[in-house]
Amino acid sequence: MAELTHMIDSEVFLAFSTYATIVVLKMMLMSPMTGYFRLTKKAFANQEDTSLASSTEDKKKMVRVDPDVERVRRCHQNDLENIIPFVVIGLLYTLTGPDLSTALLHFRVFVVSRLFHTVAYVLPLPQPSRAVAFLTGLVITISMAYRVLITALYL
Amino acid sequence: MAELTHMIDSEVFLAFSTYATIVVLKMMLMSPMTGYFRLTKKAFANQEDTSLASSTEDKKKMVRVDPDVERVRRCHQNDLENIIPFVVIGLLYTLTGPDLSTALLHFRVFVVSRLFHTVAYVLPLPQPSRAVAFLTGLVITISMAYRVLITALYL
Amino acid sequence: MAELTHMIDSEVFLAFSTYATIVVLKMMLMSPMTGYFRLTKKAFANQEDTSLASSTEDKKKMVRVDPDVERVRRCHQNDLENIIPFVVIGLLYTLTGPDLSTALLHFRVFVVSRLFHTVAYVLPLPQPSRAVAFLTGLVITISMAYRVLITALYL
User: Fold this and answer.
1) Interface contact flag, C17 A154, Cβ < 8 Å
2) C-alpha span between C30 and A151 (Å, rounded)
């Protein structure tokens, strides 16, 4: 692997920092979106949360499962399962000293595929929209993992 | 971004390592806590797990959902959704070379907010205790992400 | 902590990169495994997904919960809860400059314990197989966290 002193100020590292931050922020926005749906649908997971929505209505009925809330939560879960591996493997990939253009291609395609994945999940769009978005992100991460393994392999 | 050779021995990096480790350990403790509640409440997710609790009782009835177990699991899930983004963005933030006092403020407020979040969720405390703890952590992570983006932006 | 310039080309860092990539790839393979079970069991989470399996059958009945799908999903969730902390704390541990043999022992035992955990969960094997695999991984991560804290402690 390249010396990190040179890597850390490199354009590849700056690009990784930028795209990783953007896609992690996108993932974090699923929490407020879940909160918004819970408030508007009046569908909460905890008894104590019902006081956030209303002080007069029947609170026991507000601890319930709502299909739209669950859809946003599944989207959030899929982000956790895919964006975190991208960040971990992407950092190691960045440290292998890839070409800037190749690295940018990986980062940009991944971030666009995950933004599209969220749109396809929440609206929802007909399949295979979401499946294609998911698989695109998976292939990008596996491609970066392959470069890490052929560059750094030490078992 | 600053050269990492200087960053890695810096007090900001040591502080990040310390607080990130503490808050990830806290998150990991939710697993044994879930196990404790599953054993004491005799509420398991898998048929084979019931043998861990008892060898004589009716095991089919022990594969069930318990409200207290689910509460701990939701707390754990919220940790995953918030602590992992803090660690990822916090590492990139550390590499931007922030002032030590500003960095410590971010790390300390985040860790305290997440410790309080766990207490507020598990007891539970009345809302908006947990909502305030959650939002505090979110704001801290967004503040660090903002600095990463204005320092490293490379699209 | 040691200077990262020396660390990044070290055998410990190469070993960490290798084992972290392998265990994250293993975690990511749970997604296609979930997809495979959803397709063969015809048990989907979203109405729009049913078109991926069949165009003629009753699609409403295919939005349902299947025990085998849920088992794979719980295994995936347990990976998220344990493998991500290993990667985060393992990176910080690597930067503390541990002995190569000690580091390799940590990485190898962790990866083997998580591979065995997956086998024990999906088949499933009788308990306490899975519990032992889980606890082994937890102890490894706590051992690395301990070294990070005694080396880098800065509160």
Assistant:
1) yes
2) 25
